[in-house]
Amino acid sequence: MKYTSQLLMFLLAIALWKCEPTEVGVVDDYKKQNPESLNKLAEQIEINVTEIAAQIYEVEYVRGAGGEADNAIQFITWDFGNGETSKQDKDTVYFINPGEYTIVFNAYTYDGELSKEAETVTADELLECAIGKRVMFDNFDDDAEYAGSWVQKHPNDVVLFKDYHVDGDAPYQFPEDNNVLLIGKAGGWWTEVAYDFDTEVFDFSYAGMWRKVAMRFYIPSTFEVPEGNFDFNIPESYLNLKIGLNDGSGRQEIERKIKLSELDQWIDVEFDFTDNAFNDIDPTKVESIWVMFTHAWDNDRGAGRDGTGVIMVDDIELVQKVPGCLE
Length: 327
Prior knowledge:
Radius of gyration: 29 Å
Number of strands: 19
Order of helices and strands: HHEEHEEEEEEEHEEEEEEEEEE
CATH architecture of the largest domain: Sandwich
CATH topology of the largest domain: Jelly Rolls
Structural class: mainly beta
Number of helices: 4
Largest sheet: 5 strands, antiparallel
Strand content: 35-45%
């Protein structure tokens, strides 16, 4: 009797194990493919792919229209062919870059995985309304997009700028034939330069056209020029990069902390003013864009006169707001 009870418990455990749903996402544990059963399910499944605007599609797995398939399917996924996926029954996908993409529907059942190519999409152009148009404001190799000039705003704290500015006689190049904005520092607090527009006025307000300032920066741990050694020596807690918008009377800033692990490499950053309160300026009248870098330290000594180092800036872009692809 004892052994009979143990055998019954063992058989019951096996039965429960066979009935236990497989964890969502773990496809390898499903049974081997059962083509006959999958073919029957495939006939019952209803999926829709609808183009709702140029290069924008809505996909839908119609749950409730599949008969036995609704009970058999444990979960579904969409693969849009552009690097994006979804686990939602209904979703919207934007095909931003030109190319040909295949939308694939996947359903996972105890009889195996069912995949169907739902649609092939051809995107003809860059979908700027989904990302905001990017204007290369200054790459320092060509003339800036908008007339104006880079100006040193903190004469006592900024060094190397006049000697190696791109408009000077000997612009700094990294590595070769690639001009960059070079800002050096030996002591002081904030290192500040700005591009003053000659006539352009930019609207960064909530209802305006412009949204972000993007750029690349590079901070070398060691740097030597004829003017001296500017090796970087600053604690991480004092390391920041700011972008400021100036309307002629004040400045609105966004600050980004810099990690020591980001030294000696190009880093892409964006400063998003979309939801900025703009308490300090009129955002509809931006006349200049400031680049501010601090690597001073030892705050007990006033302005922190122990800081040295340089920052290189390249490929400054202005990013427009997303106007709305479905309008």
